[in-house]
Amino acid sequence: MKALSIILNVVLLIAVIYLYVLHFSQGDAAVSTNEAGEVIASGKIPRIAYVNSDTLLANYKFFQTKRGELEKKAEDLQKEYENRARGLQNEISNFQENAGTMTMNQARAVEEDLRKKQQNLMQYQQNLSNQLMEEESKVNNELYEKVSDYLEDYGKNQDFKLVLTYTKNSGVLYADDSLDITTQIIKGLNDAYDGNATTNAADSTAN
Fold it and tell me: Mind naming one GO cellular-component term on file for this protein (predicted)?
């Protein structure tokens, strides 16, 4: 069996593009094309910023914690599979060593039993892979929601109209460091994560 891989889909994070396009004080309805044109004509340049997704993933405590948990889970599942595969291989080796002492019917019965066990092992491997992929998908969704929700609030509070993600080898050829808000976003996300962790620990102690 190939090692169960951890593939945390960074594309999901890179897809976090917060677009708050020229909303007025009401904040709910987007301006019309004419209104947007008037803003552009007035010379008022919308505030734009970007987040380095590589740096964010490397420093966001939630992501690091979840990645560690998934890697540990993958290792445990791999060991569990290998134990079962080793047990089956021992049975096969034992059968090969003793096949000469069996009747034809006995040998056929053992072969059929081993064949079913091999099929069960393959199905078990697939189930483990599916289980891991489901958990990875859940973490990806949580990551997306946490980052996008925080960026939405941050963008509104700081009056940013556009917050993009930037990563090495992306389509962005140049980005001025003055537009980089990665450090602030990481701090805000980690403060929120630490606050939730403290609250959960307090609730657990109280119970």
Answer: cytosol
